[in-house]
Known about the structure:
Blueprint: H1 2-22, H2 28-38, H3 40-65, H4 74-90, H5 98-110, H6 112-146, H7 154-180, H8 183-190, H9 197-206, H10 208-223, H11 226-242, H12 244-253, H13 262-285, H14 295-306, H15 311-336
Helix pairs in contact: 1-4, 1-15, 2-15, 3-4, 3-6, 3-11, 3-12, 3-15, 4-5, 4-15, 5-6, 6-7, 6-10, 6-11, 6-13, 7-10, 8-9, 12-13, 12-15, 13-14, 14-15
Amino acid sequence: MQKRLNTVLFLIGIVAVIVMLLTFKVSFAELCSYIHRAGYWLVAAVLLWGLLYGLNALTLRIIIRGSGPCPVGFCRLWQIVVSGFALNTTVPVGGIGGEPYRIMELSKYVGIERATSSVVLFAMTHVFSHFWFWLTGIIVYALLWMAGLLPLPVVMRWMMGLAVLLCVGGIWLFTHGYKYGLVCKAVRLLGRVPGLTNWSRRFEEGHRESLQKIDQQIAQLQGQNRRAFLQSFFLEYAGRILQSLEVFFILMLFGFDSGQSVIGSLYEFCVAFLILVFTSLFANLIGFIPLQLGGREGGFALSVASLGMTAELGMFISIICRVREIIWACIGLILIKIKP
């Protein structure tokens, strides 16, 4: 059964990548020119994401160790993380296609309950760090505005106010979930969806003990193993910040220069950071679209426009990031079929 599901996820991912390649907003000649112009910076972006996935693998290992020994090697965890994110970006299930795959693979080493709680915790930490990442971006934008370096029109003020409410609400929700668990409540919430009421009731009654154990393991990491919780959160948050280097590389390539001083380089990194923050926020709001087709590009276009840059720069950043994403999606899908 697991082998069959593995093959189905692999095939769905391959189809999604093909669809992505066929729906580029530029011609093949233009795409080649973009890649040629990026040159070694594209290679740097690809290698950067290999490092970021390594941080994700360390996060997952810390989470697994929070509930007991971790018999999974780091390289195997890295493969599971990469393949999971490849499925997240290609399987059209709201960016969660990789979670069943991770549970399925980890259950071979730590059992289904620990695998489920570890993957749920990993996903929660990943999203939790996003809320703090977005909130940090809003604070950075406000500081640059007060310094007179960025504009802040009325529309942007309203949007940032709504984003602050979203981030604070999300942080509160996940803090509550870390303390008491979310799995049982999530199953009950599904029961309110028309057509899923009977299924939710039967599932909860048949797996009540397992669901309660999973929630207990989730609460254990935050309550009893505070150090592991903080370490896993810090790694995920640091990964979000380091991801800004990808946009920073492209800004350097495009000739965006604020001077040769340290202050100028710091400002340039802050601009890259803000572009990524606003793009990530916009893309995640429409994350149900496979590969976020159009969402990522629209996010880059809006973010660079709000910072007073050209549409050409937004298009260039979106294309290079999309090419890098496809490269890693292909790597992740190939790793699914490679036996450890």
